[in-house]
From TrEMBL:
Signal peptide residues on this chain, from the entry's feature table: none
Protein name as it appears in the record: Lipopolysaccharide export system ATP-binding protein LptB
Record-linked SMART domains: AAA
Underlying gene: lptB9
Gene Ontology MF term list: ATP binding; ATP hydrolysis activity; L-isoleucine transmembrane transporter activity; L-phenylalanine transmembrane transporter activity; L-valine transmembrane transporter activity
Known EC number: 3.6.3.-
RNA-binding in keyword set: no
Length: 256
C-alpha cells in the first residue's frame, strides 16, 4: 500500500476582501509528481505559500508523512521536511554553486553556531561531509562541473537546476517546485522533465505548480485544478483534461 506523504484539507486564506483559497485539499502519495494548475489568480501560489510557511492559513489541517505540522514559519516547514523553489530564482548570487547547496544542507546539521565559531573537530568533519554531499547533488542535477562558479554566472536553466539541488540538500519528504519551467527554452524544458523524472524514480515526491499545461499533463501522476481559489477538479491528467468544467475554465481558453 502506498504511503501518504502530504495530506492537506480545508485550507482557506483571505486577504482583506479577497477570498484567495476556499476549502482546498490535496493528498499526495510517496513517489508521485502532483501538479497544481489554474489560470492566473487561481490561488496556486497562495496555496504554495501557505503550505511552506510564508502565509498563515485562516483554516486547514496539514499532515506530512503521517505527522501533523503547522506551517507558521519557513524554517520550521523545512525542518518538518518540505523544501521549495521559487518562481523568481532565489540563489545567493555571490556564492558558488557548491556553497549554495551547502547552505541548504545546513538545515540537517548538528554542530551548531558554537561549533562553527570554535572550528571544533566535529564541525570540521561535518563541514567536509556537507561539501561532499553538496557535490554529489550538483552531479545529480547535471551541473557538477560548475561547482566553483558563482551562481550569478550560471545560465538560467542551470540556476533552476541549482535551486533544485539546494532543495534536495535538505533531505525533504516533499519538494515543492514553483513554476520551474518559467522562462525556459524547449531544450531546457526537456532537461527539466528528465530531472523531475529522475527524482521521482528515486522515490521522492514532488508538488509542481506550472503554467505549461503540456508539461504537467505529460509528467504528473495526478493533477488538481484551482479556479478563483476553489478546487475545480482533481484526478489523473486524462480525467482532468476531459472534465467539462476544466475545459471551460482553463484548458479550453488555450491556457498559458
Amino acid at each position: 500500500m502506498s504511503e501518504t506523504i502530504l495530506k492537506v484539507a480545508n485550507v482557506s486564506k483571505r486577504f482583506g476582501g479577497l477570498q484567495a483559497l476556499s476549502d482546498v485539499g490535496i493528498t499526495i502519495q510517496r513517489g508521485q509528481v502532483y501538479g497544481l494548475i489554474g489560470p492566473n489568480g487561481a490561488g496556486k501560489t497562495t496555496f504554495f505559500n501557505v503550505l511552506t510557511g510564508l502565509y498563515t492559513p485562516d483554516s486547514g489541517t496539514f499532515e506530512l508523512a503521517g505527522k501533523p505540522y503547522t506551517p507558521t514559519a519557513v524554517h520550521e516547514v523545512a525542518k518538518a521536511g518540505i523544501a521549495r523553489t521559487f518562481q523568481n530564482i532565489r540563489l545567493f548570487a555571490e556564492m558558488t554553486a557548491l556553497e549554495n547547496v551547502m547552505v541548504g544542507r545546513h538545515v540537517r546539521t548538528h554542530s551548531g553556531i558554537l561549533g562553527a565559531v570554535l572550528r571544533t573537530p566535529g564541525f570540521k568533519k561535518e563541514e567536509a561531509e556537507i561539501a561532499a554531499r553538496a557535490k554529489e547533488l550538483l552531479d545529480y542535477v547535471g551541473i557538477g562541473k560548475l561547482a566553483d562558479y558563482k551562481s550569478r554566472t550560471l545560465s538560467y536553466g542551470d540556476q533552476r537546476r541549482l535551486e533544485i539541488a539546494r532543495a534536495l540538500a535538505t533531505d525533504p519528504q516533499l519538494i515543492a517546485l514553483d513554476e520551474p519551467a518559467a522562462g525556459m527554452n524547449a531544450t531546457e524544458k526537456v532537461q527539466l522533465r528528465e530531472l523531475i523524472d529522475r527524482i521521482r524514480n528515486d522515490n521522492r515526491t514532488i508538488l509542481l505548480i506550472e503554467h505549461d499545461v503540456k508539461l504537467v499533463m505529460g509528467l504528473c501522476d495526478r493533477v488538481t485544478v484551482l479556479d478563483y481559489g476553489k478546487q475545480l477538479s482533481s484526478g489523473t491528467p486524462a480525467e482532468v483534461q476531459s472534465d467539462p468544467k476544466v475545459i471551460e475554465a482553463y484548458l479550453g481558453t488555450g491556457g498559458h
